[in-house]
């Protein structure tokens, strides 16, 4: 039995750029996009898209090329998508959070030579031979008067975009969506969801998933408005509802897991579905009927609610189910094919099944992908031509099981293979297994998912013989090769896999998921009172973890923002308390969250900080302070001595200067503690004339810095008798390390070094002037004093000349560099960086150039991990 939805009319294969141009001509002054409070008209969006297209064509980009997009949700990003398509090229979304080797594969696989991106992502692509075009706000105001290139005439088979998904061979696969498929999908989407120019659609999804295609292109082809999810977090406990109401959003598309969590949060906070919503689409995975019932209980008006289904290979959505008022099924169907699509249930021989039997769901019609980029064998196995109902048709084998219901809707029944759908992600377990199998002592692996109350968790069975493996250690080893959502947090270690009679893994004979080991980060401390016990129970229920300590981080245990909203919903219901989601992010352990809840409830703190930190203190180093001599001055130091497992090796930490010294004090302190816990003796000291050290700040020169560093090395060596002494320098401290006149340390790690002292001083001066602007004391405006100062440092002519001359030149040794997000952004810095052999990019955001952050500490967990790993590697040589 088969079902199909025949097209009412054939689409003219004009391609989306022509269709877009027609709509822009009809509604040039309509608001196309609202982004962070700024409105873009259709005319302005089109103008920006044409600027992108002209720049790309000037650079030689044309039909058949692939242009990478590494962008945040923004109006500029949408203009870039349109601009790329106007050249005849295809855009390829690149997720900056992916591991570098995965990005490298995608760039090479798609032969990407040009990337459009937001400037803060550019450093991640330095090592690639690609050209970069900034996707910044100025694009909106650039003129198109001089545009002379004529866009190429598109053909239906030309590719509009390439979307990468997980691949079973260990490599991602690029799905090629042609213009004909995108046009067919948009036409079907507009009709099914009844889109009009009065709609405001929320652009909520990241641009690396095809839900974003649904949120962007159909609305723009009807004269509607796209509201881009604001970057700033809302204060309201129900953040999504607040955004929808603030911008009067009428159409919302959400991954099913997000929709489930939002419904739970509305129930918990006694919120109602915002009155402005007329269209709600859940998509991506199986919808819980119980959550649909909850939705009905909090919705007071008529909403077109839809359950959408469709693999990336069928261009976003292929079938849609719209329940009627009489709906009472135990499972939510996935509906009927959209216009321009067909759907069939076939057996193993690709013949239609009889009656309502279960078989493989296959999709046909105009919305199919062209195939997989550079994967002809895979394309031939997934996209086949076969005779159905006496007609040769090209179909896509979804790998999903389904059956026809008596009313003509499709009922989803799981996967033919073992592919896992986790949130908005389709994951091939083989890709994860290929990485796990490379780990030391691993004999083989099998990745599956466990499910509790509708939430899925990745779990890995790992065969390791007689070896002893750590779940935390194995998880840590996967971080460099897999994105976070593909890293299992639960492991079951076995000697070998049970096998069936034909040699395959006997899945039925594997240990129960209840025997899993969770990747904990330390010993579990049990709850001490009823509140902590209740929080532990909630966490164990939500995370599906058998044992949780009160000091363990929710997110390191596998928690996500989706699960946070579920926890907040339960806490709000039980405790009748207003708890913004952001408060949970600030208190991610049971102990800290319990204390925060008590404060909100006006209760007395049950457990003093001292008792809470007793376990942590046992791991803290022994700390001694004092002074050591250097160049006729006494320099203040803090020595962190490891309590246990001392390596007999030491590290000197070299501070920045000026306000950067104050800003980084806490971070270097934390780094010292972590290195000491790894067994290093650590010496943190203040340069002469800074901090607690003796000396005249005005006499602080580059020569004095290097002399201080050399003396710190000698003092630590005498104090500890260490076999090796390493150094870590931050900002100017790193630059001073790199300029030492002779080799002093076994190795130096340069963390965000200052490239040019003159530029640094100019920035300090600029910060200093801005700090004085508009400030008053005793009703008088503060003015710059006669003393030359540069935001935190007394300056003299000699000092300025000395620091201005300090810069990074060709390094005599191969010093590893650790660079945070946005560091080394100028062209000169990039050229220098390209010549360095060892560069480690981290996602920590420090923003040295942003005056808003000059007084605040920064978050640097990835920097800590990389620095610790580098020093451990050096110490083991």
UniProtKB/TrEMBL annotation:
One of its GO terms (cellular component) is cytoplasm. Keywords: Phosphopantetheine, Phosphoprotein. InterPro entries: AA_adenyl_dom, AB_hydrolase_fold, ACP-like_sf, AMP-bd_C, AMP-bd_C_sf, AMP-binding, AMP-binding_CS, AMP-dep_synth/lig_dom. The keyword Phosphoprotein applies. Coiled coil: none annotated. Residues 526-601 form the Carrier domain. GO terms for biological process: amino acid activation for nonribosomal peptide biosynthetic process; monocarboxylic acid biosynthetic process; secondary metabolite biosynthetic process. SMART domains: PKS_PP. It holds the Pfam family AMP-binding. GO terms for molecular function: phosphopantetheine binding. It comes from the Bacteria. This is Tyrocidine synthase 3.
């Amino acid at each position: 039995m088969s079902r199909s939805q025949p097209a009412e009319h054939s689409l003219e294969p004009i391609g989306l750029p022509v269709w877009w141009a027609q709509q822009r001509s009809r509604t040039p002054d309509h608001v196309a996009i609202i982004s962070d409070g700024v409105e873009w008209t259709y005319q302005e969006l089109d103008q920006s898209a044409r600027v992108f297209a002209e720049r790309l064509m000037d650079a030689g980009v044309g039909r058949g090329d692939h242009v990478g997009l590494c962008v945040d949700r923004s109006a500029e990003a949408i203009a870039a998508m349109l601009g790329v398509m106007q050249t005849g090229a295809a855009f390829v979304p690149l997720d900056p959070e992916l591991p570098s080797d995965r990005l490298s594969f995608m760039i090479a696989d798609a032969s990407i030579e040009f990337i459009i991106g937001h400037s803060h992502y550019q450093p991640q692509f330095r090592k690639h031979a690609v050209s970069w075009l900034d996707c910044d706000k100025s694009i909106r105001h650039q003129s198109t008067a001089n545009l002379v290139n004529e866009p190429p005439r598109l053909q239906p088979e030309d590719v509009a975009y390439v979307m990468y998904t997980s691949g079973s061979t260990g490599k991602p696969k690029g799905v090629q969506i042609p213009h004909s498929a995108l046009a067919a999908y948009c036409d079907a989407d507009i009709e099914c969801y009844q889109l009009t120019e009065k709609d405001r659609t929320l652009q909520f999804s990241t641009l690396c998933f095809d839900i974003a295609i649904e949120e962007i292109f159909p609305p723009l082809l009807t004269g509607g408005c796209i509201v881009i999810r604001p970057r700033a977090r809302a204060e309201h406990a129900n953040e999504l509802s607040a955004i929808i109401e603030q911008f009067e959003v009428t159409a919302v598309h959400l991954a099913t897991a997000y929709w489930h969590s939002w419904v739970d949060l509305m129930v918990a906070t006694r919120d109602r579905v915002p009155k402005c919503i007329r269209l709600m689409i859940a998509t991506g995975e199986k919808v819980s009927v119980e959550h649909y019932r909850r939705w009905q209980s909090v919705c007071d008006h008529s909403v077109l609610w839809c359950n959408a289904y469709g693999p990336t290979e069928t261009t976003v959505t292929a079938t849609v189910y719209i329940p009627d008022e009489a709906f009472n099924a135990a499972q939510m169907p996935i509906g009927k094919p959209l216009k321009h699509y067909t759907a069939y249930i076939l057996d193993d021989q690709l013949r239609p099944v009889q009656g309502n039997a279960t078989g493989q769901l296959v999709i046909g019609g105009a919305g199919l992908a062209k195939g997989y980029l550079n994967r002809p064998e895979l394309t031939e196995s997934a996209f086949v031509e076969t005779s159905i109902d006496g007609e040769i048709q090209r179909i896509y084998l979804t790998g999903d099981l389904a059956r026809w219901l008596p009313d003509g809707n499709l009922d989803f029944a799981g996967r033919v293979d073992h592919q896992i759908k986790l949130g908005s992600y389709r994951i091939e377990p083989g890709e994860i297994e290929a990485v796990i199998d490379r780990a030391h002592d691993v004999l083989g692996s099998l990745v599956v998912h466990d499910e509790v109350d509708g939430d899925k968790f990745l779990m890995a069975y790992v065969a390791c013989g007689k070896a002893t493996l750590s779940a935390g250690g194995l998880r840590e080893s996967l971080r460099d090769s897999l994105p976070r959502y593909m890293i299992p947090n639960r492991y079951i270690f076995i000697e070998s896999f049970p096998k069936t009679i034909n040699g395959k893994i006997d899945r039925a004979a594997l240990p129960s998921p209840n025997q899993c080991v969770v990747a904990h980060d330390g010993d579990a401390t049990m709850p001490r009172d009823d509140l902590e016990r209740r929080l532990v129970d909630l966490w164990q229920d939500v995370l599906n973890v058998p044992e949780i300590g009160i000091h363990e981080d929710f997110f390191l245990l596998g928690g996500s923002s989706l699960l946070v909203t579920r926890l907040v919903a339960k806490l709000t219901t039980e405790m009748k308390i207003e708890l913004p989601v952001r408060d949970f992010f600030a208190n991610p352990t049971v102990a800290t969250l319990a204390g925060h809840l008590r404060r909100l409830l006006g209760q007395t703190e049950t457990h003093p900080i001292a008792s809470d930190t007793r376990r942590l203190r046992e791991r803290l180093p022994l700390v001694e302070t004092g002074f050591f001599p250097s160049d006729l001055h006494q320099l203040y130091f803090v020595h962190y001595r490891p309590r246990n497992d001392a390596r007999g090796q030491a590290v000197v930490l070299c501070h920045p200067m000026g306000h950067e010294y104050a800003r980084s004090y806490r971070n270097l302190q934390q780094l010292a503690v972590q290195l000491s816990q790894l067994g290093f003796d650590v010496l943190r000291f203040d340069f002469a004339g800074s901090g607690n050290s003796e000396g005249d700040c005005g006499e602080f020169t580059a020569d004095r810095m290097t002399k201080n560093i050399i003396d710190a090395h000698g003092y630590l060596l005498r104090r500890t008798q260490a076999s090796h002494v390493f150094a870590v320098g931050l900002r100017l401290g790193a630059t001073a390390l790199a300029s030492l006149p002779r080799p002093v340390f076994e190795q130096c790690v340069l963390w965000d070094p200052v490239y040019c002292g003159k530029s640094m001083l100019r920035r300090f001066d600029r910060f200093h002037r801005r700090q004085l602007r508009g400030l008053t004391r005793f009703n008088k405006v503060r003015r710059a004093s006669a003393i030359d100062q540069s935001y935190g440092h007394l300056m003299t002519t000699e000092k300025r000349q000395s620091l201005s001359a300090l810069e990074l030149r060709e390094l005599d040794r191969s010093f590893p560099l650790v660079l945070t997000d946005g560091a080394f952004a100028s062209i000169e810095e990039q050229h220098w960086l390209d010549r360095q052999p060892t560069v480690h990019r981290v996602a920590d955001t420090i923003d040295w150039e942003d005056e808003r952050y000059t007084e605040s500490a920064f978050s640097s967990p990835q920097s800590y991990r990389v620095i610790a790993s580098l020093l451990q590697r050096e110490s083991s040589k």
